[in-house]
Amino acid sequence: MKDFEFHIPTKVIFGKKALQKIPKEIPILGKKALWAYGKTSIKKTGLYEKIKELLSKANIDFVELGEIKSNPLLSKVIEGIELARKYKPDFILAVGGGSVIDTAKAISCGYYYEGDPWDFFEKKATPEKALPIVVILTISGTGSELNEVSVITHDTQKIKHSLRSPLLFPKISFLDPTLTFTVSPEYTAYGAVDAFSHVFEFFINREYKKDFLAEDLMVALMKNILKWSKIAIKDPFNYEARANLMWASSLALCGLIKSGIGTYRFPIHAIEHTLSGGYDIPHGLGLAILMRAWIKKFKENNMIKRFFIKVFDLSAKDRDISDKGLEIFENWLKELRIPINLKEAGIPEEDIEILVDKAFNIFVLYGAEKEYPKEKIREILETAYF
């Protein structure tokens, strides 16, 4: 096991009665909130009025920033920063999934920065101060409710980059699985794939490859996501399925399972950002397609075979382990009703070279261009097309 540091300053309040604790918990952060949320879902489900009532009970004044879309945009971050500077909130309340939380994180540090907030995402600047963030999670998948990462898309450049800072950990995250009962089967599936992909990338792309505790945790999380995602799709009001998916998603990217693995890369996510950033497809859809392509391309790799053995319970002695493993993974995606290649997702084959260039630039930004040259990226995307 490699040396590591582990720190999560976020308080998690989990369960059916989590929101009842809002009036007691959030006033310690102040009396004024910038309330960020998505489009219409929280108003349709009645959550909007419920939160208004809870904020009133807590004597919290607020201003609203709504209409935050999936694959959140820099323009909405800038709008939120301008609104915050006029209103001067004590904290940001993010009600939604990863897109809303990531937007809130970018606003929280952009609030104190005089330059272009995109500077943070291009590694030209580092956040030095940030507004506190409170999360009420409504969809499982990204894990943003328990980590320090924000991912934003540049409107005009059509590129998607990530920002990481310890200042961006939410102070409190309220996780009530019943809030995910109304999430559509489609987005339940995308969220499950997103969470699975986080663990998968740690598993296959880590420096420390021995069998140890963190690997056992990864295997347990992936098995749980495989199991409960299928149940949640068929029975959306199954509390155990929703609860297990929510907690697995949170644990997948909070830093716990990467503790001790040494250096690692997230190449599948890097390449995917060109898809959801450029075509506005769901992030989970792009990850599903690229994970399948990665497994197909590198199915003879020792770590992929180890993944098949540990997660799919295949035998190391099986001569057809690689083909069987790929088939099991594809069947999971099909059971979730997710397209398995770029052609099915409607991405033009002639755009592959553009995607190669964009992905390569992301690897350059992270100093990984030697590990992932254009030729390798091109091979993965070509594999992903069919």
Provide an overview of this structure.
The protein has 386 residues and is of the alpha/beta class. The protein folds into 2 domains: 11-179, 3-Layer(aba) Sandwich (Rossmann fold); 183-385, Dehydroquinate synthase-like, alpha domain (Up-down Bundle), CATH 1.20.1090. It is 48% helix and 11% strand. The strands form 2 sheets. A 6-stranded parallel sheet has the order 1-8-5-4-2-3, covered by helices on one side. It has a two-stranded antiparallel sheet with strand order 6-7. Helix 4 (74-87) packs across helix 5, helix 7 packs across helix 11 and helix 8 (213-234) runs antiparallel to helix 9 (239-252). The radius of gyration is 20 Å and the shape is globular. The chain starts with 10 loop residues before the first strand and ends with a helix. The mean pLDDT is 97.
Concise summary:
This protein is an alpha/beta fold. It has helices at 22-25, 41-44, 47-57, 74-87, 98-110, 118-121, 185-204, 213-234, 239-252, 267-279, 283-297, 302-312, 321-335, 352-365, 374-385, and strands spanning 11-14, 32-37, 61-65, 91-96, 133-137, 149-154, 159-164, 172-175. Strand 6 and strand 7 (159-164) form a beta hairpin.
C-alpha Rg (nearest Å): 20 Å
Largest sheet: 6 strands, parallel
- Specify the overall morphology: globular
> Helix- and strand-based class?
alpha/beta
- Counted by DSSP, the helix tally is 15
Provide the helix percentage.
40-55%
Could you tell me the CATH topology label of the largest domain. Answer: Dehydroquinate synthase-like, alpha domain
Write down the secondary-structure element order. EHEHHEHEHHEEEEHHHHHHHHH
Supply the CATH class of the largest domain: Mainly Alpha
N-end to C-end Cα span: 39 Å
What is the assigned CATH homologous superfamily of the largest domain?
Answer: Dehydroquinate synthase-like - alpha domain
Tell me the strand percentage band: 5-15%
Total DSSP E strands:
8
Low-confidence stretches: none
CATH architecture label of the largest domain = Up-down Bundle
